[in-house]
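Format notes (please read before filing issues)

Several people have asked whether sequences and structure tokens are stored in separate files. They are not. Every record keeps both together, in the order shown below: the sequence lines, then the token lines. Line labels are part of the format and must not be stripped during preprocessing.
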Amino acid sequence: MTAAEPVAKDAPPPGLLRVFTCFHEAHALGAGISFLRAAEPLSAYGWSATGWLPGQGALRELAEDQLELVLGGERPLGFSLRGWREPPGIVVRGLRTPSYLREVRAALEHVRPHVVHANTLLALPEAVVARSCGLPLVLQSHELPPPGPKTTATIRYAAGIADVLVGVSDAVSELLRKHAGRTPVLTVRNGVPAAGKVPRGAVNDALFTVGTVATVSRAKGTDVFLRAARLALEQRPRMRFEHVGAADLHRDAGLDEELAQLTSEIAPQGALAMLGYRPAAEVVPRWDVFVCSSRSEAFPLATLEAMSWGVPVVATTVGGIPEQMDHLDTGILLRPDDPEAIATWLIRLHDEPDLRARLGEASAARVRREFTLERQAEGLHRAYLTALNRRFAPARIRRAMKAVA
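Then the structure lines:
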């Protein structure tokens, strides 16, 4: 076990409720960021958070600022057969796995948490170790995997070892309940920090800028975003498009070549910038419109962040996105895989500043009402207490909880 330098002390303080959160990766993506943001409001309920992060990455740096203690080890586990085959290969990964799982156990014994929070379904191996230690277990799904035998088996297994399952949207929770049996499923929607109002006219006087924040992949609809940009620019050549998100995480065969071809077709030259990973706060507030062209989403943070800054959002009707906004009230909702429709709405929003302003103001107000970090923390607190009660409450109370699960 290796430990990063803790923020203030080498072990969580006594007397607090301790939650041990297992992250499945060290990239600063939505699932990890969403929990770190909720750590401070969780402390109002008496929770002290420790994080287990595999490997080095931007998320570790954020965690060291937000959590009481950060521990971790190099994770040899692959997320798929293709992942297992990546260097150093299946054999070496397999040989290193028992040692890694022992490191997880040693960390749990060091922290002695009251509850373990597996932050995604991909943290199932760490969750299994926590279960073997007899610790109350909350397993959260930030994913909305496609239906099929693999998804069914994964959720059933997760429900079998967890005391509580948590979905980040009603869409995710509905999928979990189909296979959870008697394990309770709670919905805890992510929140975002309060954002100050950005004067729209002051951020981009010369050019109308459309942006998106998403990892480069087919699931996130990167190709759809570029096709919509090409179509919109044919009619409004003074528009500019920016893509923010990591470009080296996808495993979509042929996507890089397709995107290179699309990029070469976008005119005028310089109308598109692929900016790579950057914190959303550095770019989104200066955009005129935010686009989410995803083919699959559970409950994206980026759309909420754009809404919180008053940036009007054009998004697809997938997963939990319709729980965030209503069409023509707090955003624009379109069916997935329709770059023509996205382009049409971008042109309309370009031409109608009053519509942009109305959507932006309404969306910011909705985020302030419904998608706060305080509400997220309250939901996680409720999930942790449910797990504790299901494991340690008197027998009659546990029987009553099972009866209503």
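For reference, the curators noted about this record: The radius of gyration is 22 Å. Residues 200-370 form a domain with the Rossmann fold fold (CATH 3.40.50.2000).
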